[in-house]
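Please check these two lines:
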Amino acid sequence: MKIILKLKSIYTIIIVYSILIIAVTILSCNNSQLNTTVTSPNEFVKVDFFISDKGEPTYVVNYKNEKVIDTSKMSFDLKASSPLSENFKIINVKASTTDETWDMIWGEDAQVRNYYNALKVELVETSKLKRRLNIVFKVYDDGIGFRYEFPKQEHLNDVVIIDENTEFNLTGDHKVWWIPGDWDIYEYLYNTTKFSEIDALKHYEPETHLGQTYIPENAVNTPVTMKTSSGLYLSFHEADLTNYAGMTLAVDTQNLKMKSELVGNSENIKVKRQTPFNTPWRTIQIADRAGSLIESKLIVNLNDPSIIDNMLYFKPMKYSGIWWDMHIGTGSWDYSGKYHGANTKYAKEMIDFSSEHNIDGMLVEGWNTGWEKWWDKKNKKVHFNFVTPYPDYDLEEVVRYGKSKGVELVMHHETSADIIRYEKQLDTAFALMKNLGIHAVKTGYVGSILPEGEYHHGQYMVNHYQKVLEKGLETQVAINAHEPIKATGKRRTYPVAIAREGVRGQEYNAWAKDGGNPPEHLTIVPFTRMLGGPIDYTPGIFNTSLKPSRPENQINTTLAHQLALYVVLYSPVQMVPDLIEHYKGHPAMQFIKDVGVDWNTSKVLNAEIGEFITVARQEKSTKNWFLGAITDENKRTIKIKLDFLDEGKTYIARLYKDTSESHYLDNPEVFEIEENNVNKSTILKLNLAQGGGCAISLIPKN
């Protein structure tokens, strides 16, 4: 399928200024080196780029006259070639300004403004080879992105990168929220430490984390978020990760410095490319308040515009599923197991339930042959077949019945990370979905990668995930990837990339031996993992005690907290995962029926990372507002101004909230519903229990 790139926006103003006009200053020094500066549109963020005495590309970042990144070098180590590190000179500088507004096909907001000043610095070596390298900066009001361009050239054609050495030299021992720089999985609880106290290697336990884990050095995965002593928030990540290795950040705790550490393979190769090519953007978000990190669109803006005009075949939705049974032990994926969950009878019951509760999708896991010892590559009895159902599951009948009830089937492809076999079946598997009119699939990659020697976050897998996205575009199937590569904003270019996991999700509460996810977990995730993009966390468990099936485990939140997650955690696909019996007749089910999934606008009303967060979102189709507030293990009272509501309108506010007896450990399922008339001038006082929350629907009265 040939895809033509189209640039669409309602307002596009691209003005190329002269270097002097846009505040890019070129100063001639005594040693004839060039020093360049570019600022953000509001002039708060400033990047200084210069060449050191040794000819090293170097940059510094300031925010409101506060230095946030001190002198940091930029270089590459190449196989069978000398490093690209020294003896550079600037041969050209190009500056521009872009101010455009583009429509999100689906998302947190209907429209996004993309406004930045750009600076492209063209470099050449003064040594014999005269190799060229360009560095492009885009400076926004909310941070910066920069990437490297490798032009087509005589002495640099086949490029094998052993190391990319992009430095981030910090200016203090900041407070950091981090997970280890694992090359295979992101499913960790976040640590909160000083930068000097980061120790990723103490978390390295081989053969854990579903059999896929590798941490070669003291490094962190991105996004990694920090708070300075002056109260400034910083988050480091990457954007538009395409045909390149994922980036971790190696940590120098003594010198308070990070350096890009690309994910490699068993041959110690990080990236293989041919010129010309570009690297992903290296990003730094900068904010005065924690909530501004979430409201920022820096990551999606650094990706190319959508290559399609619409996705009429897919709409954001809530979905139920045959999934939670497997995690709490009331069902199995394996057909030969005690109770095979993926059977036609149960699927139809789930469809009936979904149809009655405004749930437009239904996932079935364990439907296809190959689940016998699926996690064990050496002793596997059967390999996955992505078109052949087990005898007790009539795929075509389930699809037909679902469509008759207005419920779309969400397909499931667990690959057990056997990429070779999955890619051999990719055409037939997606053709089946196209023929049946199935427009969404959840993919899974549990276990170590086949072929051996590759890792989930390396270039090989980045290209595989890209191949699946392109196949989804070709067949009109949206992709929800689990055990994925991190989100880097590609949803703008490829809107079929609807969501992904890449986080320690709800299922850990069912079986993790460490007691599950603590209450603070989801007060950190929105400011770290979710800065990359939407998350398929599967909120909404009502039976938080997990009795009788898992009495040794529990969900470490109140029920009101679970409801609030439908607003706090953004995704265009939100699961309603609990068993039908726990939802039927439950008064809290009304909030799940009402809450939106596609938004006109989103606002973070208050937040402190690791403590609490309150988010309000306006649904795109109805203009109804929904609000979610959650707290960590500490109870707290917060005041919420409803000044975001429309002037002159009265709203019916229905609050699903903790009671004075609520507690995530001792009394998690008790809650109460309160209804009030509110307007733009109303200030709500919310009492959140330990591990608690509050979910609110705000429906216009007239």
The chain has a mean pLDDT of 94. The chain has twelve helices and 36 strands. The first helix runs from residue 290 to 295. The radius of gyration is 25 Å.
